[in-house]
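Reply to dn_fold:

You asked what the input looked like. This is it:
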Amino acid sequence: MSAGDVLISACAEEDALLRKRTQSSAGIPCSSNQLKEIYERQFTELSLLRRYIYSVLPLRQISTVFEPGCGTGLLGRELKTLTDAVYTGMDINRELLPNDTNFVHGDAVGNPCPADLYISSFFFSSVNNPVKWLKKVRKKLSPKGLFAVFAEYDYTRIQESPEIGLADMVREGLKREGLNTTSGSRLDYFFKKAGFTKLAGGEVTTGMQKPDRTFIEMHVNSIPDELPLVSWCVVWGVWRRS
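and this is what came back:
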């Protein structure tokens, strides 16, 4: 059995260990197709940032990659064109997963998989105890293993014009859903406490623009007909197991 077969087998076994987590919506329930459209938009908007992050990763030197919260597999499919490493993506939402053996249904928060490289995108807001989870991940990473966070919203730094309190409404909606609204601003702290060393990182801020109405409706109970212009802060980073 190859290293890739072992990785995929280990991940598939975790399907039986899924923990029940609340996934209720604060606003209008979002269909799988709507979620896919949101993911596509986010993925397109951050293409230049991803290109830079790829350039600082040793993609030719790694054998296995694991992506927790892979969603529709956009990041994983792109990464597979850039490396010969065996990729496995895991998501708790079976409906979003591509029909591909590299993508498995499971709880990556409860049961992280072994790999040389972890990658994630908009994932940490769903992790209740990031430090505890990263300590588990650290044990699963190879001795020189890396964790690359391609994107995480810093919800504490949403800007809007004119100010109508939309940022506060989004944050409150996310909190009601059990999501962590401060994860983006605390990534450095999480990784340091868990025993990682930062190799690279930064942030990008979008220009002021009309927000995705479907995204807002997912998290806010009542919104005005005319939404304000909104700017989002996206944080990224690469950490090495110390």
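Residues 1-28 have pLDDT under 50 and may be disordered.
Hope that clears it up.
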